[in-house]
């Protein structure tokens, strides 16, 4: 990205509910010579904990488990923490012997560190890519795969696996909603820093909640470049009328920085 002034290009990252100064994406962009701010576009809360606990105590009913976001891993970890130490060890040992599938390196790392599982598919950056991994590993007409997910998770994995006669049992373990401080945070940054050169979206739900707000406050969308993390987010941006300037094909800080530098 070419500098539009003597100052380094300015970006805003719409990312989950974690906007602390230690975010690895922000750090990587600063190292690459950009200025950037994190705006927490979403907030999350966990749900159906008791139902999840009842499921986790019956690993023999499943052939494995699917995680498509860090939140789903955290939800399972929170549920497991309700058992005593001996029960936790027993259950996690049982689940470790089953197949674990994940989307993305961040989710893979959490499944390892928080649950002691051995994930497959961490290189996949989106649901349809993981579906292909699963169908290449799991035989049809076997025990179902457990799929703890969020309320806004798309149906790509259940639909694709169902077509391959691989059963999936979904349970909503967290709810996603717009961050209550989104408008105030964004307006403060725009007032303090001025118009950004680029904006980054991490998820379709982030697009859903942040883009209408930009239009409400008359932000000059045609004067800014919009970058997506993954093709699913890119598709959501296009559907809402945005021109996608670049897509980071893998959800890593390095891929994001490279996508922006190539503009």
From TrEMBL:
Pathway: Porphyrin-containing compound metabolism; protoporphyrin-IX biosynthesis; coproporphyrinogen-III from 5-aminolevulinate: step 3/4. Transmembrane segments: none annotated. Residues 23-257 form the Tetrapyrrole biosynthesis uroporphyrinogen III synthase domain. CDD domains: HemD (cd06578). Its EC number is 4.2.1.75. Pfam families: HEM4 (PF02602). SUPFAM superfamilies: HemD-like. GO terms for biological process: heme B biosynthetic process; protoporphyrinogen IX biosynthetic process; uroporphyrinogen III biosynthetic process. PANTHER family: UROPORPHYRINOGEN III SYNTHASE, UROPORPHYRINOGEN-III SYNTHASE. Catalyzes cyclization of the linear tetrapyrrole, hydroxymethylbilane, to the macrocyclic uroporphyrinogen III, the branch point for the various sub-pathways leading to the wide diversity of porphyrins. Porphyrins act as cofactors for a multitude of enzymes that perform a variety of processes within the cell such as methionine synthesis (vitamin B12) or oxygen transport (heme). This is Uroporphyrinogen-III synthase.
């Amino acid at each position: 990205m070419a500098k539009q002034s003597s100052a380094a290009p300015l970006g805003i990252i719409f990312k989950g509910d974690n906007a602390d100064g230690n975010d690895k994406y922000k750090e990587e962009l600063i190292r690459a010579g950009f200025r950037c701010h994190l705006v927490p576009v979403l907030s999350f809360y966990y749900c159906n904990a008791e139902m999840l606990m009842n499921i986790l105590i019956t690993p023999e009913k499943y052939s494995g488990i699917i995680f498509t976001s860090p939140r789903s891993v955290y939800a399972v970890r929170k549920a497991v923490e309700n058992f005593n130490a001996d029960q936790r060890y027993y259950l996690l040992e049982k689940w470790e012997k089953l197949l674990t599938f994940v989307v993305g390196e961040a989710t893979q790392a959490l499944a390892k560190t928080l649950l002691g599982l051995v994930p497959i598919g961490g290189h996949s950056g989106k649901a349809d890519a993981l579906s292909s991994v699963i169908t290449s590993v799991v035989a049809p007409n076997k025990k179902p795969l457990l799929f703890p997910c969020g309320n806004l998770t798309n149906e790509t994995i259940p639909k694709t696996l169902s077509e391959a006669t691989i059963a999936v049992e979904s349970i909503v373990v967290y709810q996603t909603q717009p961050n209550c401080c989104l408008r105030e945070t964004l307006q403060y940054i725009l007032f303090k820093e001025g118009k950004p050169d680029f904006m980054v979206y991490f998820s379709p739900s982030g697009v859903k909640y942040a883009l209408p707000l930009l239009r409400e406050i008359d932000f000059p969308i045609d004067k800014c470049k919009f970058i997506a993390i993954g093709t699913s987010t890119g598709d959501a941006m296009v559907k809402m009328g945005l021109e996608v300037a670049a897509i980071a094909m893998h959800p890593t800080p390095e891929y994001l920085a490279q996508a922006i530098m190539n503009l």
